[in-house]
Design goal:
It contains 1 helix and 14 strands; from the N terminus they run E-E-E-E-E-E-E-E-E-E-H-E-E-E-E. The protein is mainly β. The strands form 4 sheets. It has a 5-stranded antiparallel beta sheet with strand order 6-7-4-10-11, with no helix packed on it. A 4-stranded antiparallel beta sheet has the order 1-3-8-5, with no helix packed on it. Strands 2-12-9 form a 3-stranded mixed beta sheet, with no helix packed on it. The longest helix has 6 residues. The mean pLDDT is about 85.
């Protein structure tokens, strides 16, 4: 078989979640598995996502319950699908009713699947392993009754260093030094669309950075 005869799947996965939920409200989360119309069929798909402890009481959408497995001890979701044809999309929903304010991080998940690379592989039932990563995300839980509001608090620090990475308080004309600027969000909410402008004096020349 020539290189043109080798097929490659165009399979993708996405985790969809609300950016924020209020305590006591229902938050709907969704795992979307998509096999492009330009793809080939994929088989034995398994998606594993380890959720934070806050998801110990999640509810599954009834339409897809038979494809879901949940380990209550580790709050790990496992989705198993036998086959997805090209152009097919599957949605798996689960719900959370949060009881506590805070920022929650869902770590990345893993997806394994199999496919036939060539017609001869199909005839001989020889499958190739494929994998994708399900990207993680953050979301916020707000409690309107909590006096501690979910707001970002940005701290910015700067340091002047010599070429060895040691702190300095002055330098000589012609000597290179490192200007280090660090930004840390110590608040309870994510800071988005951050814009930072640093203006250097005219007599300084930026070498790199």
């Amino acid at each position: 078989y020539s290189e043109e005869d080798v097929a490659c799947p165009l399979f993708s996965a996405k985790l969809v979640a609300p950016q924020s939920i209020e305590v006591g409200d229902v938050g709907v989360f969704k795992i979307v598995l998509q096999n492009s119309g330009s793809s080939i069929s994929v088989y034995d798909i398994e998606c594993v996502l380890a959720l934070p402890d806050i998801f110990h009481d999640i509810q599954l959408a009834e339409v897809a319950q038979h494809l879901f497995e949940i380990d209550k001890g580790t709050t790990t979701i496992s989705i198993k699908v036998g086959e997805m044809s090209k152009g097919e999309t599957l949605n798996f929903e689960f719900e959370l009713i949060p009881q506590e304010q805070g920022t929650v991080k869902i770590p990345p998940g893993a997806i394994d699947y199999e496919y036939f690379r060539t017609e001869s592989d199909f005839d001989d039932d020889i499958k190739t392993q494929g994998e994708e990563q399900l990207e993680g995300l953050f979301f916020e839980i707000h409690d309107p009754k909590n006096p501690d509001k979910m707001v970002p608090v940005i701290n910015m620090n700067r340091r002047y260093l010599n070429q060895n990475g040691q702190d300095i308080h002055n330098t000589k004309i012609g000597e290179n030094f490192i200007y280090e600027l660090s930004i840390v969000n110590v608040g309870m909410s994510a800071a988005k669309s951050i814009s930072l402008q640093v203006v250097f004096p005219a007599h300084l020349r930026l070498l790199e950075g």
